[in-house]
């Protein structure tokens, strides 16, 4: 099999759709289908089950997918090492970030890095903390920045200055004028929360336990995959939540959203996540230096690896 066949196979396996994979690869759909058919014919194995317009990986396809991702990650790593022979004038850096990091903490840092290294292309994917760890573990990202703690033994996690979660409601919510809510209000409240697996959800549940309540007993009216959607629900008066102060500055100043006391939500670090055994490129080290260690903003202060 060729690297091109592996790359096509891995893309179809991730998209589970031939046409979408062809669009990502900038190939025709017949060319993608032919590459997969050639792989299947060569080894006498079916890699995908075709179910109408949908495809699913077979057991053989699942095994090959894991190997293909590992092989392609090593190829990308070799290409990065060769590109570095000419310095940081060209190349790529693959990042994965969790929601709050990617949407609010990272943008000014990416701009600073891009201004310093115009020849380096940055590819960014956004998910929750578990998805960030998975991307780094599988080699789809060289560096992850996550809100939550990552405990995978294959990965190394370093804390950096992050944000602070705030207990918040919309300006029209019945709690808006209270200033502080007690256990009874917390227990009876209607909550709009991030999904399990997110760093925000984990810290919220830890704070609820610290208040003597069972998170499983709360009335969670909505589970939403991003802070922007939760913010919209709060503005509509649909419940209470916890959100990062990085995304609330203007809303708090305008009174559209109100912060309350009642949960112990200390400042939280974010975490730089790397694979324990993979090569650290010059581009990745330069990003950490320019966008984290030496970055300074009036709001966050100077970033520092602890």
List keywords for this structure.
single chain; 306 residues; alpha/beta; 7-stranded mixed beta sheet; two-stranded antiparallel ribbon; 13 strands; globular; disordered C terminus
Shape: globular
Helix percent reads 40-55%
Q: Helical region count?
A: 12
Structural class: alpha/beta
* Unreliable runs: 298-306
Q: Let me know the number of strands.
A: 13
The major sheet is characterized as: 7 strands, mixed
Please state the average pLDDT score: 88
The N- to C-terminal Cα distance equals: 45 Å
- Radius of gyration, in angstroms, nearest whole number: 22 Å
Question: β content, as a range?
Answer: 25-35%
Order of helices and strands: HHHEEHEHHEHEEHEHEHEHEEHEE
Structure in words:
Residues 298-306 have low confidence and may be disordered. The chain is globular, with a radius of gyration of 22 Å. The chain starts with a helix and ends with a strand. The protein is an alpha/beta fold. The strands form 4 sheets. Strands 3, 4, 5, 6, 9, 10 and 11 form a 7-stranded mixed sheet that branches. The protein is built from 12 helices and 13 strands. Helix 9 links the parallel strand 7 (190-194) and strand 8.
Q: Which helices and strands occur, and which strands form pairs?
A:
Layout: H1 3-15, H2 18-25, H3 29-43, E1 48-51, E2 54-57, H4 59-83, E3 91-98, H5 99-105, H6 107-116, E4 120-127, H7 129-138, E5 143-146, E6 155-170, H8 183-188, E7 190-194, H9 199-210, E8 219-224, H10 227-235, E9 240-244, H11 249-254, E10 257-260, E11 267-275, H12 282-293, E12 296-297, E13 301-302
Parallel strand pairs: 3-4, 3-5, 7-8
Antiparallel strand pairs: 1-2, 5-11, 6-9, 6-10, 6-11, 12-13
